[in-house]
Amino acid sequence: MIDRVQKRFGQLTSRAEQISESIRNKNVSGLDVDKWYANVDSLFYQIFPSDFPHRVKFSRDAGAYDEPDLVFYYRLAVFEAARDDYENGFLFDLKALVNAEVFSDELEQAEYFLQGNHRVPAAVVSGTVLEATLRALCDRNGIEKATSVNRMNDDLTKAAVYNKMMHDQIQAWAKIRNSAAHGYPDEFNDIQVKLMIDGIRDFITRQMT
């Protein structure tokens, strides 16, 4: 059973790498992605209880993201974490230690991914938090919400919600998030993502409390 599961993890990892390459080349097939989701869900059903964090995160929480590419990278990170825990025998220890509070804060979730050497989903998740924060600030200040982070950032700066230095920092964070979401992980590193997570947390504390 263990050898069969490990083999299946390997097969699905290879498929995920092919999908990632297709996303970078902008010729991804939605059917291939959906098949991968179904295969991973089936594997998780066989080896994890229904309330196990990896299974819950893969099946339910990805719905928080609107863009298909972001959903894929989010689920890929969960899949990789599950494979690592399974192959290293951490499942039972993890079940005892991890509960819903670990993911109650989206930035904690981003840190969780980063600590597991998954900087791409960490950048995507923290960037999504940043976008949601900017939308909330637009609402609070009576500014029409735009479709892009850069436009909201410009409008909030013009309204003097924060200064030009903060504006430039947000642009830098948005660039990291976009690089992550569009398959360019070599354009940023773990340290930059860590600084991004910490900076966004501080930004939220100052602007939203």
What's the story with the biggest beta sheet? Answer: none
Q: What's the mean pLDDT score? A: 83
Beta fraction: under 5%
Cα end-to-end separation: 51 Å
- H/E series, N to C? HHHHHHHHHH
Task: Note poorly predicted spans.
Answer: 92-104
Coarse morphology? elongated
Radius of gyration, CA atoms, in whole angstroms:
18 Å
The class by helix and strand makeup works out as mainly alpha
Let me know the number of strands.
0
Please report the number of helical segments: 10
Number of domains: 2
Range of helix content: over 70%
Indicate the multimeric state. Answer: single chain
Quick structural overview:
By secondary structure, the protein is an all-alpha fold.
What features would you describe in this structure?
It comes from Blastopirellula marina. This is DUF4145 domain-containing protein. This protein has 209 residues and is mainly α. The chain folds into two domains: 2-98; 119-204, no CATH class. 74% of the residues lie in helices and 0% in strands. The chain contains ten helices and no strands. It has helices at 2-24, 30-47, 53-59, 68-87, 91-97, 106-115, 119-140, 149-158, 164-181, 190-208. Residues 92-104 have low confidence and may be disordered.
Helices and strands, with pairings:
Layout: H1 2-24, H2 30-47, H3 53-59, H4 68-87, H5 91-97, H6 106-115, H7 119-140, H8 149-158, H9 164-181, H10 190-208
Helix pairs in contact: 1-2, 1-4, 3-4, 4-7, 6-7, 6-10, 7-8, 7-9, 7-10, 8-9
Protein name: DUF4145 domain-containing protein
Organism: Blastopirellula marina
